[in-house]
Amino acid sequence: MTVTTEAPVKETPDAGGVPSFQVTMRLRRFNPESDTEPRWEDHTLTMHGTDRVLDALHKIKWEIDGSLTFRRSCAHGICGSDAMRINGRNRLACKTLLKDLPLDKPISVEPIKGLAVMKDLVVDMEPFYAAYKSIMPFLITTGNDPSRERRQSPEERERFDDTTKCILCAACTTSCPVYWSDGQYFGPQAIVGAHRFIFDSRDEGAEERLEILNDREGVWRCRTTFNCTDACPRGIEVTKAIQEVKQALLFRRV
Amino acid sequence: MAATTIAAPRSPRSPRSPRRMRGRTNTELYAWLFMRVSGVLLMVLVFGHLFVNLMVGEGINALDFAFVAGKWADPFWQVWDLLMLWLAMIHGSNGLRTIINDYAERDQLRMWLKVGLYTAAAITIVLGTLVIFTFDPCPADAAAELLPSFCPAP
Ligand code: FES
């Protein structure tokens, strides 16, 4: 261990030499039992360079205010529970490092937009899941012969590889301005979900799914703003997937 | 063992999601396609129009009543301007329609905005078409030096 004489003696040593800093978290709080309107609440914390927004939320919940409510499960970007609006952009709290954000200003954390807030950062995800369900997110085939595998070449698999990465966190759908203003719109996630099956060579439900997305509230509502591609924590090219569905519709019908 | 055929788990016509029952047409598809196609055509038409009116020959100095009257005596320019008028009006109105659909939340408001939009578009298209085809390049009581050269001398 090296000790430098200039280093100020601290009560709590840095975690393994990781730099620490002060950060102000500006949270959008709403308690349906006592508030009529959401309100902002600031907490200033000492965090480390390895900490994520989720760690800051944990620190607040565990050490300062246990009533802070948010969803998280895996804490490693897999389950898609903790999508929230961080500094105005939809991100997963567990994949956003504090040190990557501008620390001289407070970091704002809000619930994702376009879905009803239930408490603090928790929103009602039902309309989002309903849109996903309506595109029939399961393999549709004819017959029920289980005697052999449904084979697929690597190229055929590659065709829809990007959209298989979706974790249903709702970051894309709730970043879409059309979805904010019109809750009937299927939203980018449902289209990504449909894309995953439409372009799967084993699936036979493409026609039906395309018909569903040809709806007034379907793919044609997309304004190609790329908010969804920008928001996706898995790096899915959401807008591209939507354009591919539009193309599939166009060349089947016209 | 004969493979029994199982129907798709939920047929698309099931009444469970009422929002899908509204109109199973390709209207939105055609509207979207129209925007793309008319956009490309308008680029050619508008820039062609600007080029011919402002840059060819004497350029902008040649622009007067006689110039316009001369153009509209030619069926080629009649069709050109007619296409430009119709495509631009429909393209623009459809764009405004989608904006109204996106941002006007109240049903009543949305309906009235669209009624206003369609009326305005229809009036402009009808009037414009009328002008293009009934235009008189040689009005009787106009000063001779303003008229195109092919007008009969008064
Ligand atoms: S907590 Fe699972 S994705 Fe962030």
Automatic annotation (TrEMBL), chain A:
<keyword id="KW-0411">Iron-sulfur</keyword>
<dbReference type="InterPro" id="IPR001041">
    <property type="entry name" value="2Fe-2S_ferredoxin-type"/>
</dbReference>
<comment type="similarity">
    <text>Belongs to the succinate dehydrogenase/fumarate reductase iron-sulfur protein family.</text>
</comment>
<dbReference type="InterPro" id="IPR004489">
    <property type="entry name" value="Succ_DH/fum_Rdtase_Fe-S"/>
</dbReference>
<dbReference type="GO" id="GO:0008177">
    <property type="term" value="F:succinate dehydrogenase (quinone) activity"/>
</dbReference>
<keyword id="KW-0003">3Fe-4S</keyword>
<dbReference type="InterPro" id="IPR036010">
    <property type="entry name" value="2Fe-2S_ferredoxin-like_sf"/>
</dbReference>
<dbReference type="GO" id="GO:0009055">
    <property type="term" value="F:electron transfer activity"/>
</dbReference>
<keyword id="KW-0408">Iron</keyword>
<keyword id="KW-0560">Oxidoreductase</keyword>
<feature type="domain" description="4Fe-4S ferredoxin-type">
    <location>
        <begin position="156"/>
        <end position="178"/>
    </location>
</feature>
<comment type="pathway">
    <text>Carbohydrate metabolism; tricarboxylic acid cycle.</text>
</comment>
<dbReference type="GO" id="GO:0051539">
    <property type="term" value="F:4 iron, 4 sulfur cluster binding"/>
</dbReference>
<feature type="domain" description="2Fe-2S ferredoxin-type">
    <location>
        <begin position="21"/>
        <end position="115"/>
    </location>
</feature>
<dbReference type="GO" id="GO:0051538">
    <property type="term" value="F:3 iron, 4 sulfur cluster binding"/>
</dbReference>
<dbReference type="InterPro" id="IPR050573">
    <property type="entry name" value="SDH/FRD_Iron-Sulfur"/>
</dbReference>
<keyword id="KW-0004">4Fe-4S</keyword>
<dbReference type="InterPro" id="IPR017900">
    <property type="entry name" value="4Fe4S_Fe_S_CS"/>
</dbReference>
<dbReference type="InterPro" id="IPR012675">
    <property type="entry name" value="Beta-grasp_dom_sf"/>
</dbReference>
<dbReference type="GO" id="GO:0006099">
    <property type="term" value="P:tricarboxylic acid cycle"/>
</dbReference>
<keyword id="KW-0001">2Fe-2S</keyword>
<dbReference type="GO" id="GO:0022904">
    <property type="term" value="P:respiratory electron transport chain"/>
</dbReference>
TrEMBL record, chain B:
<keyword id="KW-0408">Iron</keyword>
<keyword id="KW-1133">Transmembrane helix</keyword>
<feature type="transmembrane region" description="Helical">
    <location>
        <begin position="76"/>
        <end position="94"/>
    </location>
</feature>
<protein>
    <submittedName>
        <fullName>Succinate dehydrogenase hydrophobic membrane anchor subunit</fullName>
    </submittedName>
</protein>
<dbReference type="Pfam" id="PF01127">
    <property type="entry name" value="Sdh_cyt"/>
</dbReference>
<keyword id="KW-0349">Heme</keyword>
<dbReference type="GO" id="GO:0046872">
    <property type="term" value="F:metal ion binding"/>
</dbReference>
<keyword id="KW-0472">Membrane</keyword>
<dbReference type="GO" id="GO:0016020">
    <property type="term" value="C:membrane"/>
</dbReference>
<dbReference type="InterPro" id="IPR000701">
    <property type="entry name" value="SuccDH_FuR_B_TM-su"/>
</dbReference>
<keyword id="KW-0479">Metal-binding</keyword>
<feature type="transmembrane region" description="Helical">
    <location>
        <begin position="29"/>
        <end position="56"/>
    </location>
</feature>
<keyword id="KW-0812">Transmembrane</keyword>
<dbReference type="InterPro" id="IPR034804">
    <property type="entry name" value="SQR/QFR_C/D"/>
</dbReference>
<feature type="transmembrane region" description="Helical">
    <location>
        <begin position="115"/>
        <end position="135"/>
    </location>
</feature>
<feature type="region of interest" description="Disordered">
    <location>
        <begin position="1"/>
        <end position="22"/>
    </location>
</feature>
